[in-house]
Design brief:
- It is a single chain.
- The chain has 13 helices and 14 strands.
- The chain folds into 2 domains: 6-64, DNA polymerase, domain 1; 69-352, Aldolase class I (TIM Barrel), CATH 3.20.20.70.
- Helix 7 (200-209) runs parallel beside helix 9 (238-250).
- The chain has 364 residues and is an alpha/beta fold.
- The longest helix has 14 residues, at 134-147.
- Residues 330-337 and 342-364 have low confidence and may be disordered.
- The protein has a 10-stranded mixed β-sheet with strand order 3-4-5-6-9-10-11-12-13-14, with helices on both faces. The chain has a two-stranded parallel sheet with strand order 1-2.
- The protein has helices spanning 13-22, 28-39, 53-62, 122-126, 134-147, 169-180, 200-209, 223-229, 238-250, 272-282, 307-319, 338-350, 354-363, and strands at residues 6-7, 63-64, 69-75, 81-86, 92-99, 104-107, 111-113, 128-131, 156-159, 192-196, 213-217, 258-264, 287-293, 323-326.
- The protein binds S-adenosyl-L-homocysteine and iron/sulfur cluster.
- The site of iron/sulfur cluster (SF4) has 12 residues, from helix 4.
Length: 364
């Protein structure tokens, strides 16, 4: 029986060194291979001209570099590109490429689906399918840069697509290591943001392993409400979560702030009383607040907060001295919620009608 080929796409520098060691090759091959794959976008070993023909042949027999496949790409009038990606398991995920004035941001997924069931999130409503492999995570960045080489290279990555990155830590950290590595994507740590709903023990461990930017999906500032809309709060309540955030900052020599994400849902978490709670619990935590108007989706009764409420909520926080931004949804809400888009998408894929899912993307 033919042995399965090893997919080297998600291998970090360290693992590639081990790999080349195992086939009696010098360690500098690891850097060479990283450059071919992640800087030049070359995945066919036969084109890697600084490898001997013998090595190229050998690699072709035992290994491969295989990104996931793009099923569909849709470009919005504002230039945001949404890619529907099919994994080998058949699961669908989505990534979103968002052009801004001075940067090109990629919103990526870490899991297909999510087990955490936040009540405002379509991904959560769909349930959990699988953890993405390291190759499937970094594969999204590879595809964003090389599948469609017409647009500028990705400058920023946010783990705000489908899934909870801190429930797939090892693969997420491997992909981060490649994002940072000078022979791979060479992004600075400030340009990578990991967003979590608050898996406290993993945040506590994270600081020893990485120092990328951290965003917390807070969405409620008291335990009663947060237990309801972000159910993982029952396991890791606000106090523990905020302590973990402080600890994360303390362990970093230079990192100054954490981003607090707060979706504004009409009549649920958007009153001035809620804003007061927020001010109270965030006191003493160096942070900036990112307000996100809720994006409605089918099957969820929540509605987006009214314009005036959003304004008042924001002004209150600003007056209290918090740097507060409002994530602007560009008409079609593409930026608003990658996770949500993916959730909607998956729902229609689940209906076993791929055409529908593509239509759905086109209408979002
Ligand atoms: N699981 C992680 C990362 C993925 S979700 C987390 O929860 O942080 C990332 C973000 O998707 C959430 O913080 C939220 O900002 C956004 N999101 C999910 N559903 C949304 C919705 N219906 N409207 C607006 N934003 C949404
Ligand atoms: Fe999962 Fe994040 Fe959605 Fe909550 S918001 S269900 S943690 S993907």
């Amino acid at each position: 029986m033919q042995k399965e080929k090893i997919n080297l796409l998600g291998f970090t520098h360290e693992r590639l060194v081990e790999f080349f060691d195992s086939i009696d090759q010098p360690r500098f091959r690891a850097s060479q291979l990283l450059k071919w794959i992640h800087q030049r976008g070359v995945i066919d070993f036969m084109l890697m001209t600084d490898f001997s023909l013998e090595l190229r042949n050998n690699l072709s027999v035992i290994a491969e570099v295989k990104p996931p496949s793009v099923e569909e790409c849709h470009v919005s009038p504002e230039g945001t590109k949404k890619y529907l990606i099919k994994l080998e398991s058949g699961s669908m995920i989505e990534m979103v490429k968002i052009p801004e004035k001075k940067r090109m941001t990629l919103c990526i997924s870490s899991q297909a689906g999510c087990a955490l069931q936040c009540t405002f999130c379509a991904t959560g409503a769909q349930g959990f399918e699988k953890n993405l492999s390291d190759a499937e995570i970094i594969g999204q960045l590879w595809l964003a840069n090389f599948y469609d080489s017409s647009s500028p290279l990705i400058s920023n990555v946010v783990f705000m697509g489908m899934g909870e990155p801190l429930l797939n830590v090892e693969n997420v950290l491997s992909s981060i290591s490649l994002m940072l590595h000078q022979n791979a994507y060479g992004l600075s740590k400030r340009r990578i943001t990991l967003s979590t709903s608050g898996i406290v023990p993993e945040i506590n461990k994270l600081a020893e392993r990485t120092d990328v930017s951290l965003a917390i999906s807070l969405h409620a500032a008291n335990n009663i409400l947060r237990d309801e809309i972000v159910p993982i709060n029952k396991k890791y309540p606000l106090n523990d979560l905020l302590d973990a955030c402080k600890q994360y900052l303390n362990n970093q020599s230079k990192r100054k702030t954490i981003t607090i994400e707060y979706i504004l849902i009409d009549g649920i978490n958007d009153s001035i009383e809620h804003a007061k709670d927020l001010v109270k619990i965030l006191k003493g935590l160096p942070c900036k607040i990112n307000l996100i108007p809720f994006n409605p989706f089918e099957g969820c009764d929540y509605m987006r907060s009214k314009e005036d409420t959003i304004k008042d909520f924001k002004n209150f926080l600003v007056k209290k001295g918090f740097i507060t931004t409002l994530r602007i949804t560009r008409g079609d809400a593409i930026d608003g919620a990658c996770g949500q888009l993916v959730g909607n998408l998956k729902k229609s894929v689940k209906g076993k009608n791929n055409k529908n899912s593509i239509n759905l993307i086109n209408t979002l």
